[in-house]
Every structure is written in structure tokens, then in C-alpha cells.
Amino acid sequence: MANSNTTLAGVRRLAGPSVAGTSWQDRGHGLTAVVAGAFTLAQLLLVGPRMGLGWDETVYASQISAHAPAAYFSAPRARGVSLLVAPVTSWSSSTALLRVYLAVLSGAALFIALRAWRGVFPARVLALGGVLFASLWVTLFYGPQVMPNYWVAMGALAVTGFFLRAHADSADRPALWGVAVGAALMTWMRPTDAAWTAAPLVFLQVFLPRWRNLPLLLALVGGLVVGAAQWIAEAFGRYGGLLQRLSDGSRLQGGLGWNIAVGDQLRSLGGRTLCRPCTGSMPNPAVVAWWFVLPLLVVLAVAVAFRARRPASPSRTLVPLACAATAAFPYLFLIGYAAPRFLLPTYALLAIPVADALVHLVTAPDGRWRPITASLVAIGLAGHLAVQYAVLHSTVERTQADRRGWSRTAAELHRLGVRPPCLLTGNEAVPIAFYTGCSSAATGGSNKNSTAEGIARSARTMPVAHLGTPTGRPPSYTRGWSPHSFDGLRIYVAPAATRNGPG
Q1: Alpha carbon distance 37, 109 (integer Å)
Q2: pLDDT at 447
Q3: CA dist 138 to 105, 135, 141, 268, Å?
Q4: Most buried one in 38, 45, 398, 473, CB count within 10 A?
Q5: What is the bridge-based pairing of β-strands 489-493 and 423-426?
Q6: Strands 439-441 and 423-426
Q7: Could you give the maximum distance between any two Cα atoms of the chain, in Å?
Q8: Cα separation of 81 and 50, whole Å?
Q9: Degrees (nearest 5) of the Cα angle 48, 50, 52?
Q10: Partners of 118 in the β-ladder
């Protein structure tokens, strides 16, 4: 208890007066509300509410959907994000409504996650940390999307802040509840990511006597278990057990093992939402420069923490950095491809210590050096924001063009008589099936859920179409089907659909 009280005293001396009797506005936390509101507005203006759903989004959205049957749900996925969007997808097919809902929800989540750190860092540091994270193109792009990675990031940011507060003050019951809810959110969205991210927190509680706190450990582990309960139960009900599901998930991701994917992640920073296989040249140096500056700022953050000579300073910096490192490890060293969204939890956890380092750069120097340092930091941040906007703009334009193509294909399928209830197979069948209102089937690959015989049987009772390429060889079950060329695709339509006639 002495250690906890000492840490708490250090935290409160750093952050200012006690929270008791003081409104959050008076303590400057209105800044975090402004940041969160601006983040929501930026998503709506820069990404836009009318961008169509992507491949993975259609899988998650279709699980509880009034628009299309549920797509095949592979072993690595978790149902948290499907349940998160169910208040919209269960009754509406409006993509715009879904985007607005997620933009507002993601802004609220950012505000709550930053507020979890109150009393640990000053309000201006928290607000700047929010700006640094929210202004990344990958954060803005995925905030309004039906994807789990942003929500893992919010859970990670919240649980780490609440963890430090609960360690500092064992009487802070709201912080204990915050640890449990944040841990549950992470595992609800992606259990394996949650395990990697929470590993340092569990280690501190189990192996370091100074950190041991039974209520805190119970809150952390309890949250992880509650969040993962459905995923674990489904592993036994559908995938042959927990170990089998983990094994299947590894296989579908190319087999987890030692593989340095740092270069792959660098290539993805230019706006490649999925870099698999990750070949080609590196992006412009201006695009990846921040990735090389980031480790330097992390080192500065550690130096600032140890030079502060306050009991809480090292732990409040080292704990989020440790969680950021373990969250990034599997995506930098264990898989053979990259997607920038994988590192969102790491970026969120780094944002606050890095913001603290930047504030130190601006405020610590005395005399004539302070204006120079402040100017350099301001110029660097302005350039960084400009680069992030440029990458976001090009990524959004390219993504919208791809998804408009899926909409055109769906309209053509409807014209050819492929209307719900119906089934699609072949190239990009999963997302196009969602746009068409059909089910999707595959006889091989990571989405295998049927056989050629099963598809042939379906073709006798409902409209079925196979999506191929102009040069590819169609599967045997399409023999006798009507071929059509459209938008770079070769569409084979079963006789049951052609009997409906185009219209």
C-alpha cells in the first residue's frame, strides 16, 4: 500500500489538483472533447458516409443483417464488431447511416479512452495524444468502418490508463471497472490481439510484488475472459476446440512463425489497405518519415520520464510503451503480410507518451531556444498532417472506385436474373454477394464452405452465378451455364436464373 500511495502522490503532483470538487471542464478536459468531436467530423468530411463496404466489412456486417445472408465466418474472426453494428445492420441496409453511426461512436470511444488517463498525464498531453492518433490516415480511414482494429485500439488505450489509475489508488473503483470493460472490449473484438496487448499488464500483476493488487488482477483477467467467452464457446461448437481454432486461424493467415514484416508495414503506409503479397517499391520518403521519427520520440519520452524524478513518471510511460511493443510484435515479426490497421493499438498506446515528449520539447528549453524548438515541432507536425491527409485522400478515392465497381456488378447480376435468394461463387464473390443480396460459396481457399456438388444442387433451385476472369477456366459445375462479359469479369449464370429473364 505504501508504494501505491507514493505512486498516487506522484501522479497527483504531476497532474495538478485533486479531481475531487473540480469539474472536468475546469481541469481542461474539455480539450479531449474537442479532439473527439473533431475526429468524428473529420471522418464524415474526409472519408465520407457513402463509401461502400469492403470485403471484410461485408463479412462482419452480414452476420446480423437485413440486407444479405451471413457470409462464411472464418476461424480468426470474432463477432464483437458484428454485434457493435447490429443496431443499424439488423434493420437497415443504408451504408451512409452505418458510417455516421460508427463515426459518432468512434469519436465517443476516443473521448472515453483519453479520459481514462485523467490524473496520469496533464490534460494538454492527453489532448495532443488524441490529435496525434486521430490524425493518422489509417485511424481516420478505419474509424467509421465495420472492422475490429480501431476498437481494439480504444480498448487498449482505455485499459492501460485505467490500470495505472487503479494501481496508483486501490480505492478508485471506477478505474477497476474501466480495466474490466476495456479488457472485455479488446477480447470481444480480437481475442489474440487482446492477449498480446494485455501481456505486460498481467506480467506486472503476477511477477512483480510491487504491482500486485488482487482486485486489479481479477478485473483485468475477468474482463479478458468475459470478452473472449463467446469466441471460446464458438471454438468448441464450430471449429473443433480452442486449439483447433487457433491452428486454423494461423493457417489461414499463412502460418504464424518468425517472419520480419517491418518492410511490409512500411510499404502499407502509402495507402495499401492489404499488402499481401507485399511487393513493390517503398512509398515516398515523406510518407514513411514519421515511422523513423517515432522511435526517437519514444526514447525521448523515456528520458523525460526518468528525469522527472517523480515516482509515477517512469511507470506511466513505460507501461503503455510495453503494451504497444507486445501489441505490435506479432504483426512485425510473425506474419508474412501487412495491413496498416493491424498497428492501430500500438499507435494509440504510443500517442500519449510521444505527446508528453513533444510537450517537453516545447516547454522545457529556456530562453532563446524555446521559440526555436516550438517552431520546429510545429513545422514537423504541420508537414506530418499534410502527408497524412494526402495519403488518406488517395486511399479513399481508390477505395470508393473499387467498391463502386462491386455495386455495378451487383446491378448487372440483378439484370441477368440473379436476385435474392441467390448464390454467388468465384472471384470476389464474398463482397459482391453482399451487394447483390446473395449468399456466397467457395470450394477452396480461406473461405471454403461448400463443394462443387453442393453448388450444382443449389443451381437447380435458385439463381446461381459464378464470377470468373476473361482468361480463367471456369469450374466444371458451370458447364451449360450462360456466359456474360461485364466490367472485366466473365459471369456464368445458371439456367435457374436465366429462366427469370433479364430485367
Answers
A1: 11
A2: 87
A3: 17, 8, 5, 10
A4: 38
A5: unpaired
A6: parallel
A7: 84
A8: 19
A9: 115
A10: 121
Is residue 289 pLDDT above 70, yes or no?
yes
Q: Radius of gyration over alpha carbons of the chain, in Å? A: 25
The CA distance from 98 to 88, in Å, is: 6
Give pLDDT, residue 166.
Answer: 95
**Predicted TM-score (pTM) of this structure:** 0.92
For residue 330, whether the previous peptide bond is cis, meaning omega lies within 30 degrees of 0, is no
Q: Which residues pair with 441 in a beta bridge?
A: 425
Beta carbons of 192 and 149 less than 8 angstroms apart: no
466: Cβ contacts below 8 Å, ≥ 6 apart = 424, 425, 426, 474, 475, 477, 478, 481, 491, 492
pLDDT tens per residue, range 164-188? 999 999 899 999 999 999 999 999 9
Q: In the β-sheet with 464-468, what is the strand arrangement from edge to edge?
A: 439-441, 423-426, 464-468, 489-493, 482-486
Encode pLDDT of 216-227 as tens digits: 999 999 999 999
> What is the rounded distance in angstroms from the CA atom of residue 110 to the CA atom of residue 161?
13
DSSP 8-class letter at 136: S
Cβ neighbours of residue 124 closer than 8 Å, sequence gap 6 or more: 28, 31, 359
Residue 253: what pLDDT? 82
Cα separation of 401 and 137, whole Å? 18
Query: Phi and psi of 404, rounded to 5°?
Result: -65, -35
- Give the span between the Cα atoms of 411 and 244, in whole angstroms: 40
pLDDT of residue 446: 85
3-state secondary structure of 396: helix
The DSSP result for 1-67, as a single string, is -HHHHHHHHHHHHHH-S-STT--TTTTTTHHHHHHHHHHHHHIIIII-TTPPP-HHHHHHHHTT-SS
Cα-based distances in Å from 192 to 28, 75, 293, 330: 36, 12, 29, 10
- Judge contact between 305 and 321, C-beta under 8 A: no
Whether 370 has a pLDDT exceeding 50, the answer reads yes
Confidence at residue 209, expressed as pLDDT on a 0 to 100 scale: 92
